[in-house]
Design a protein that fits this description.
Blueprint (H helix, E strand, L loop, with lengths): L11 H5 L2 H6 L10 H21 L2 E5 L4 H6 L13 E6 L4 H11 L5 E5 L3 E5 L10 E8 L2 E6 L4 H7 L3
Length: about 160
């Protein structure tokens, strides 16, 4: 297998592997001359590689999602994953909250950092030509719905901030 580097420590196949896609027989490929490939490369070079250098190994739990895969997992129709502008990650030996806070404190050019359900970190970059919003959010579930709270919090604290 010929692995394609996106940055010093990240490979394209880390962003295209998906058990859900395999289960549904969905193809997850990215052409090297595509906008999606360029977006993934930028995500790695500008945000994920600096985190890898500072924090150690990073596991990509969800990277690029073609629209059919995104729909199959119940992702937002506007998800930045569809364009290769986002990844859900876990950092080896670091809590998801600590990892999320690291991105914010380092001043990297992220668009969104979301501490998702206390389990992983969504890292997104702005669309080409747009200024990163540097939004930091925490997502929690309450009454079967996902809620987003401004700031990075422990899930139990974020739940208290959700309006009834």
């Amino acid at each position: 297998m010929n692995r394609i580097l996106l940055s010093r420590n990240f490979f394209l196949d880390e962003f295209t592997r998906s058990e859900t896609a395999a289960r549904f027989g969905l193809d997850v490929n990215v052409e090297q001359d595509s906008d999606t490939f360029r977006n993934l490369k930028t995500l790695c070079e500008q945000v994920l590689q600096p985190a890898r250098d500072a924090l150690g190994p990073i596991f990509i739990s969800s990277g690029y999602r073609p629209r059919l895969l995104n729909r199959a997992i119940g992702g937002s129709p506007n998800s930045y994953h569809i364009s290769g502008l986002a990844a859900d990650i876990a950092v080896s030996g670091t809590s998801s909250l600590s990892a999320a806070r690291w991105f914010v404190h380092m001043g990297l050019p992220f668009d969104q950092i979301i501490h998702e359900f206390g389990r992983w970190v969504h890292v997104g970059i702005a669309r080409p030509g747009e200024i990163p919003r540097r939004q930091a959010l925490t997502s929690v579930r309450k009454d079967g719905e996902t809620h987003y709270v401004v700031g990075l919090h422990m899930p139990q604290d974020a739940l208290k901030m959700v309006k009834a």
